[in-house]
């Protein structure tokens, strides 16, 4: 969507696209001929109807939490830029596909398309979840979007199960925070992933830090929390059979 544009207006623009142009865009996206089912004159109308259905059934009911997750990803990318510069952020959007090449060149995929000159155009970066892949879209050569998946715990991947013993020891909510901190996260990210309030997350982090299970470090403007070695041992022991402390390299 364009800045300030409502969803209904965006869908109306999709409906107004000429059928031949819609088919041309799909051929580019698929890097080949269209399947018979998509080679039709009512393609824009059907695409608009699909967008409305996805929004109504798969996005709107969960939008409050999804928005928190997306905002948390933006915070994480900003912190990463503070640590390693924007080149590191661009390289990590879709590892192995997106890559900053230097000299104002940005690789977005492995397709053998000729380079596209976009000087003066607007480029936006759009996180999505749940999704493992990304894509690129553009609007009349004036606006480009690089769509990328939220990474790690923000994307809903990974094992977040709280061992029963750890939950009994620390309390389920606090134990859940400790489990999630196998990778450094900000309070904003923890709030997004757990659904707990910012105050509750802050209290859990305070207790865990005082117990020596969690540490924190500043990354640019963000503060990242992560497990200490003692925190790792506690989580690993709780997750292992019979609560035995697993051997560590």
Q: What structural class do you assign from the helix and strand content? A: alpha+beta
Approximate shape? elongated
Strand content: 15-25%
Radius of gyration: 22 Å
Helix content: 40-55%
Structure description:
The chain is α+β, with helices and mostly antiparallel strands and 249 residues long. It has two domains: 143 residues, no CATH class; 76 residues, Winged helix-like DNA-binding domain superfamily/Winged helix DNA-binding domain (Arc Repressor Mutant, subunit A), CATH 1.10.10. 47% of the residues lie in helices and 15% in strands. The chain has nine helices and seven strands. The strands form three sheets. It has a three-stranded mixed β-sheet. β1 and β2 form a beta hairpin. α4 packs across α7 and α6 crosses α8. The termini are far apart. 21% of the residues are buried. The model has no long low-confidence stretch (mean pLDDT 85). It comes from Streptomyces misionensis. Keywords: DNA-binding, Transcription, Transcription regulation.
Topology summary:
Elements: H1 7-15, H2 19-30, H3 43-59, H4 63-93, E1 99-102, E2 105-107, E3 122-128, E4 135-139, E5 143-149, H5 164-170, H6 172-180, H7 187-194, H8 198-210, E6 214-219, E7 222-227, H9 229-239
Parallel strand pairs: 3-5
Antiparallel strand pairs: 1-2, 4-5, 6-7
Overview features:
47% helix, elongated, 249 residues, Arc Repressor Mutant, subunit A, alpha+beta, three-stranded mixed sheet, 7 strands, 9 helices, two-stranded antiparallel sheet, 2 domains
């Amino acid at each position: 969507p364009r800045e300030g544009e409502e969803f209904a207006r965006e869908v109306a623009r999709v409906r107004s696209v000429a059928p031949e142009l819609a088919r041309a865009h799909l051929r580019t996206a698929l890097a080949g001929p269209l399947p018979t089912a998509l080679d039709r004159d009512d393609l824009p109308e059907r695409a608009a109807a699909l967008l409305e259905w996805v929004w109504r059934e798969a996005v709107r009911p969960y939008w409050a939490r999804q928005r928190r997750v997306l905002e948390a990803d933006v915070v994480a990318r900003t912190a990463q830029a503070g640590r390693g510069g924007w080149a590191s952020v661009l390289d990590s959007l879709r590892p192995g596909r997106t890559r900053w090449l230097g000299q104002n060149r940005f690789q977005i995929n492995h397709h053998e398309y000729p380079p596209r000159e976009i000087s003066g155009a607007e480029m936006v970066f759009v996180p999505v979840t749940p999704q493992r892949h990304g894509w690129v879209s553009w609007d009349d050569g004036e606006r480009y979007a690089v769509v990328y998946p939220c990474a790690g715990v923000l994307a809903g991947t990974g094992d977040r199960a709280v061992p029963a013993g750890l939950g009994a020891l620390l309390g389920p909510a606090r134990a859940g925070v400790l489990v999630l901190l196998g990778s450094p996260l900000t309070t904003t990210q923890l709030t997004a992933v757990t659904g707990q309030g910012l105050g509750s997350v802050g209290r859990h982090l305070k207790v865990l830090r005082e117990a020596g299970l969690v540490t924190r470090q500043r990354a640019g403007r963000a503060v990242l929390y992560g497990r200490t070695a003692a925190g790792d041992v506690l989580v690993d022991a709780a997750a292992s059979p019979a609560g035995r402390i697993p051997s560590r390299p």
